[in-house]
Amino acid sequence: MGTIHSNTAKILVFSTEKISDPAIDMAGLLKLHYPPTVYTITIPCSSGIKPSWILYAYEKGFDGVFIAADGSDCVYGESCTEKTGNLVGKTHELMKSKNIDPARLRMAAICSVCSESFVKQMRGFNEYLLKTLHA
Amino acid sequence: MEKKPKKIGVYICHCGGNISDYVDVEKVRQAVEGDEIVFLSKTTMFACSDANQRDMVEDIKANDLDGVVVASCSPKLHLTTFRNVSERANLNKYTYVHANIREQASWAHSDNKMGATEKAIHLVKAAIAKSRYAEALESNKVKAVKAVAVIGAGVAGLKAAISLAEKDTEVILIEREAEVGGRVAQWGSLFSSQETGREMIDRLSAQLKLHKNINLLTNSEVVGNKGSVGNIALKIRRKDPETGAEVMTEMTVGSVLMATGFDYYKPQQAEFGYGVSDRVITMPEFKKVIDTQTSKKLMYNGREVKNIAYIYCVGSRQTDGENTYCSRNCCTSTIHAAVTARQKFSNIQNYHFNRGLRTYGKQEILYADSLRQGDIYFQSYEDGLPVVSVEGKKTIVKVNDVLTANREIEVEADLVVLVTGMVPQTDNSVGSLFKLPKGRDKFYNEVHMKLRPVETVIDGITIAGACQGPKNIAESVNSALSAATKSYSIISKGELESQPLVATIDPSKCSWCGACEKACPFDAILKVDKDGKTIAEINNTVCKGCGMCAPVCEPDAVNLIACSSAEIMSMIDALV
Lengths: 135, 576
What we know:
heterodimer, A: alpha/beta, Rossmann fold, four-stranded parallel sheet, 42% helix, 17% strand, B: alpha/beta, FAD/NAD(P)-binding domain, five-stranded parallel sheet, 14 helices, globular
């Protein structure tokens, strides 16, 4: 379990350079606040995330991992949605085998204009993690 | 021989106060200065300034640095700037690593300074961790189609198309309506041009026809797009004006220039008497009235108009509504209409109920003309807006005028003109198609209003004219010329430099199962025999660096350059 924050959970976001990064940046530009313990690692495409990275994040102390997926906007093609779904499914299975609550991994399509949606996701995820891990 | 440890420089930017107002940048610097590979760490007022860039080059050369980390704004804005700095200091540009502590720390957490500082420290540490792995790489080249699609054939779209055509580029000019010209084609006399709006559009249309490399598609809309900068395939739906039949065509361009214009604000029912009294109209309606009438007397609805009350900032600078912005051009547009009305018709008296005039630049001349001819100006603030009341056949406008010590002023107006501002296009389907971000004002947003004023965060898509925010004709034309040049610069070489971030295979771990080949959408995985073993090999010229092959590899033999497991995990270590 990560460092216990009084009111925020540690969330690692895998975000994509071309699609979801602009939305997360825009959230900052619009001063749409979300917990400061949300950290982003930029990757080219959400379907390139290895389950081992996600498990490593839990092992090291992150409370939750969020995949800001490309969805149908992926610049690398339409198969991204299915492949990202597959890797999330595979990771959920691995999490179950390690007794990690699968709900600590969330995924949502975040397009370049989805700033509000991203912030809403982060606030909701933070609440869930606080309730289940830090209550 | 043991590998020499890396030496890097870390620069933490104040961004004026955009970062340092919320993030303690000195604390960030102190938190990272002791890192094993950090040779020097500095804070700087503006990392992107010429002076700091020069200092960085000197630092890199003098200290023989192997890499640089800059913690500043979004990499969308300055990644290239600092990569170029590295190159000027004879460092490979891919050894540069960026940390975004403005959009993702100081601005996002401006409500929590401690939290923002703590986050910034972690982000910079993660960038330093990434920097350990950053290697010298050579860029890839991809072909770019030497054609630009200009969407919208208003004054901005026309100017942009002509400018691009003069640069010897194929242009596809796509207009939803049957005619080109947009709003300007509907306008009469202009300030400070001697032309009418129609004449200006006719002149531009004539110029357009001289260019064989402009393909004008009217009655056409973009309904689909695929691909990315350099190769954007557009699906265009064209409606035959006579038969109404729809034809779909596909065209590929390297860049798209959006010039889709604006809508006028439509007042709410009863807003300043609109829709309640037939003597209350909007500025676009008033302009049509004065442009089309030829008699000596100004007539409206069969009645002579003498006293005209103009109520400014209707739908702009709202305190209760969404449109908090100033529409910029309406003050000038109103005074121009008032001066025109007074010159064209007899016995006109203009009363301007404003909230502070913004006739900037040469437009001040028009304001002086209006004062000379006897127009009367009343001013109020947002807490004391004019009130329009209909009393029998009379329309009364009342205000407490701040220019005369809040004296109550009452004007019986024959016509009340609501000075309505610009709002974003109601139909935003084309913007949604390209996923163009919008700002707080709901107009399309540029990357940076000063540094990259016509680029969007979507690579290859530029914006021009009033789709980006309220602008007058001159400002729209300037932005159109700028966007045309930017779009041209993207595709002019016929090829684009792409990041050499391709997949790699560890032959010692790979024993060919074919999973990566199946996952790759670009056929970039080859099955080869090497040293008596069948393994996968990456075709670097085809690999796009998406990484789809990596998670499906059970023995974990696949990694992306600059996104390897070692890098990602070291970043996780730094962030937690």
